[in-house]
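Sequence in, structure out.
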Amino acid sequence: MNAKNLVLIMAIAMLAACNTGGLNRSDGTYAPGVAGEMDIDGLLVGHRLMAAGEYELALKAYIRGAAQHGINVDTLSAMGSANLKLGRLWQAEKLLRQAVDEDPEFPPAWNNLGVTLVEMGNYPEAVEAFRRAFAADNGNSDQIRDNLRLALAKVEDPAYAAPNENGTFQLVRRGAGDYLILTTP
């Protein structure tokens, strides 16, 4: 290839780069953007993935939700709950403690922190977390009341498993739905 042909090819390439067509055309048509540009709520997607048992994907959706909504009690609590379901207890505890620091009157964050503490074997602190959740919820949640009752029984006898319940603790989140966490044998 001689120098004239190389210069001609480079000139055509530079002119093509100046064209208004392509990915961002001025006539209103364009190629699809990245997923972050869509108006899909990451928290909603995460909640649905949690309900479907897809905890790793839910965590990623919650992280996208945090990018959309900012780091707040909802996103911290959601990411903590996903980490809890993935067995990442230390990460879950850290996120849920941040959530209750952000909003001390948010029952789901207190409840889910209590579930995390139970999973870690810290029953007395779990009882306190469930009491705060119960108080913040004005005693309206049967799930939180059941969790508090089970945690109190665990304080009295750490080997306790409620009859016909297998020692089940329930995760609570804002909105519809709940998630079950089974205590380790």
